[in-house]
Amino acid sequence: MKASQTLISTLREAPSDAVIASHQLMMRAGLIKKLANGLYAYMPFGFRAYRKVETIIREELDAAGILEIKPTVVQPGDLWKESGRWQTFGEEMLRAKTRSGQDMIISPTAEEAFTALIRDGLTSYKQLPIFIYQINTKYRDEIRPRYGVMRGREFIMMDAYSFDADVRSLDESYEKCARAYRRIFKRMGLDVISVRADTGAMGGSGSEEFMVESEIGDNTLILCPKCGYAANVEKATCAHDVALDANGDAQKPAIQPIEKVACPGVETIEQMEQFFKMSAMQFIKVLIYKVYNCALDLSDAPGSFKKEKDESGTEYYPESFAAVAIRGDLDVNEAKLAAALKASGAELAEAQDVVAYSNAPHGFVGPVGLTKLPLIADESVMKKNKDGTYDVRVHDAVTGSGEKDFDTMHVEPVRDFVPFMTCDVRTVQAGNKCAECGETLYTKKGNELGHIFKLGTKYTKSMNVTYLDANGKAQTPLMGCYGIGVDRTLASIIEAHHDDKGIIWPMSTAPYHVAIVPIKYDGAVKETADALYDELSSRGIEVLLDDRNERPGVKFADMDLLGIPVRIVAGEKNLPSVEIKERSKSDSTLVPASDAANATAKIVNDALAALNAE
Question: CA 460, CA 283: separation in Å to the nearest integer?
C-alpha cells in the first residue's frame, strides 16, 4: 500500500479525554475516531490491526475444532425472559421494541441466543459435544465509558459456547479453550496471568480470567509468589488468621454478660480503637446491604421480603436486605456477598433503610437482636461446621448496640447471636497468607482480556434444552461459556508495547510489517524504493510505501507513532545502500539495497516465527 492511497491522519497531541497510553496513541495515530461517548470507529490503520487480532483468534479456535457461526446482534426479548435475565441483567441492557410491539435487545452477551440456536436442533447424545463461537458486536450502556475502546459502549467480542453431555466432557471443552487462549495471547505478544474469578451476572461454577498486568487495570489480582495461586480480588480467598487482642494474645471467650456503653460520636473503627483502647480485631462491625435479585431461599431467615418468579419458574427476591458481620479490621467484598446470596448485586443500604432494618444508623448496628433481616457472618467472625457447631474466631467482642451513640461490650458469638449463615465475604489484601501454601500474598493491577466459565445447566435448564441419552431418557446438557474482548485486547497490546514516540507493534498485529520511507520520492531513490516494495510484497510481506511529499522528519515521526515494526529509509546520501531500523531498537543498519529485501524478510519472518512458536 502506498501512503498516498490510504488515510494517514496523525495528531501531535492527544484529545484531553484520553488519559491512558492506548487511548492517546490510538487517537494520535488515527487508528480510531470518536463518534460519541463510548462509541469509536476504526479507521484504515486501526482496522488492519483489529483484523490481525481477530484473525489470530479465529485461526486458533478453528485449529481447536471450534466452529464459527454468525448470530444476529439484535435478539428477541422473549429469550431473555425464558432465562430469567430480562428482569435481572440491569440497566446496561439496551432494549427496543419493533413496530408490532415485540421486545428486543441489542446483544450485551449471547448465552440466550446460542442456547436457543442449539435447542432447536439437538435431539440425541450422538450430536454432543457441540462447540461453537462468534466474533460479533455487543452493546452495553456503560454508565461511565472510558479509556477509549478499552471500555466502550459498543464493542466486539469473541463468544464461544460448549454443550456437553457430562462433567468430563465439559472439562475437556474448558481445557481445550484455555489452551487455545494461551496460544492466542502468546501470538499477540501478550504475557497473560490466569486467575480464578467470580462468575458475576453470567452465573455458573468454575470461572477463570486471563489478565494482563496494567497500571490502569480495572481488576486487582491476588497472587502467591510460591505456589502460583492467582485470583481476582472478587474471588480470592486467604488462610484464616487468628484474631488477637490488644496485647497480641489470642482472644478468649467472654465470661461477663454483654454490657451497653455510651460512646457518642464514636462511629468508625479507628474511633473505636481509641475509645476502647482495643485492637480492631476485637470488634465485630455490622453493615446493612441492599441485595438485588437474590435467588437464595430466605424463607427461614428473619424478615419478610417479596418473592417473585421469573419466566422459567425460578423464585427470587427482586429486592431484599441483609446484615453482614465481619471482623473490625476487614472489609466486605460485595461480589463475594452477591455470589453467596445468589444475587445479581449488593450495595450498602441507604441511611433510612439501615435505621428501618436495624433501629440504628451505620456505625452503631450490632448483630444482637436483629429480627428484620438475615445476618450473614463472615468466616473471620465464626464458621459453621458440617455438624452444625460453630468455630468461633472473634471472642469477647465490641459491637454496635442497635442504638445510636451506644456500643455493646463482651459480645460472644453463639452465646449472644447466631447468624442465618456463615460464608467467606472478606476482601483479601496484600500481606494475607495464601490458603494453598501459607506464603504471603501480593497484589497487581490487571485488565481482563478473556474469561471462561463452566455454566452447567443454568441456561439449558431454564430454556428447556434436552436430548435423549443412550437409554432414550431426556437429559439436560451442560454448558460452558468463553469470551475474549477483541477491542480490549488490541488496546492492551498497545499498553504493553509503546514508548514516548508511539506504538511498537508486535509483528503479528502490526497494520503493516514494513514501512519504506524515501527521503525524496523521485529519481534513483524512487526506483530503489519501488523495487524494494515490489520484492517484499511478492514475498508476502505487508509493506507501506510512504510516497507523500512531506519532510523526512514528518515521515519518521508518523512511522514511529504508527508503530510499523521495520523501517527502511532510502536516500541519495546512502545509495546504493539503505538504512534498516527495527522500531523496538535504537540502532539502525546500512545494508546494500540489493540485500535489503532478504534482510528485511528475515527480520519479519523470524519475529512471526518466535510469536507463533509452541
Answer: 45
Band (205; pLDDT cuts 50, 70, 90): low
Q: Encode pLDDT of 400-431 as tens digits.
A: 999 999 999 999 999 999 999 999 999 999 99
Smallest CA-to-CA distance from 66 within 174, 189, 192, 208 is with: 174
Give the whole-angstrom CA distance, residue 80 versus residue 379.
36
Q: How far apart are CA 216 and CA 157, in angstroms?
A: 21
- What does the mean pLDDT of the chain come to? 94
- Gap between the Cα atoms of 261 and 277, Å rounded: 14
Q: What angle do CA 16, 22, 25 make, to 5 degrees?
A: 65
* b/e map 271-288, b = 16+ CB within 10 Å: ebbeebebbbbbbbbbbb
Tell me the CB-side half-sphere exposure of residue 179, using CA atoms within 13 A. 12
Question: Distance (Å, rounded) from C-alpha 398 to C-alpha 411?
Answer: 6
Give the 3-state secondary structure of residue 127: helix
Largest CA distance in the chain: 99
Q: Do 264 and 405 form a contact (C-beta atoms < 8 A)?
A: yes
Render pLDDT for 12-53 as a digit per residue (tens, 0 to 9): 999 999 999 999 999 999 999 999 999 999 999 999 999 999
Residues 244 and 279: their CA atoms lie apart, in Å, by: 8
Q: What's the N-to-C CA distance of the chain in angstroms?
A: 32
Which residues, including other chains, have CB under 8 Å from residue 606's CB and lie 6 or more apart? Answer: none
**CB neighbours (10 Å) of residue 540?**
10
Instruction: Give which of 393, 395, 397 is closest to 378, Cα–Cα.
Output: 393
Q: Centre a 10 Å sphere on the Cβ of residue 587 and count the other Cβ atoms it contains.
A: 6
Three-state SS string over 195-218 comes to EECCCHHHCCCCEEEEEEECCCCC
DSSP string covering 213-282: E-TT-SEEEEE-TTT--EEETTT--------B-TTSPBP----SPPEEEE-TT--SHHHHHHHHT--GGG
Is residue 452 within 8 Å of residue 160, measured between CB atoms? no
Residue 475, helix vs strand vs coil: strand
Gap between the Cα atoms of 371 and 433, Å rounded: 36
Q: Residue 213, Cβ neighbours under 10 Å: how many?
A: 16
Query: Dihedral (C-alpha) 117, 118, 121, 123: value to the nearest 10 degrees?
Result: -160
**Residue among 90, 212, 250, 242 nearest 492 (CA):** 212
CB 284 within 8 Å of CB 327: yes
CA 352 to chain centre: 34
CB atoms within 10 A of CB 367: 26
Say if residue 204's pLDDT is above 60.
no
Other Cβ atoms closer than 10 A to 476: 16
- Concatenating the DSSP letter of every residue in 282-340 gives GEEEEEEEEEEEE-S--TTSSS----EE-TT--EEEEEEEEEEEEETT--B-HHHHHHH
Element (H, E) at 187: helix 167-187
What is the tens place of the pLDDT at every residue in 260-287?
999 999 989 999 999 999 999 999 999 9
Residue with cell 451476572: 201
**Strand partners for 161:** 132, 481
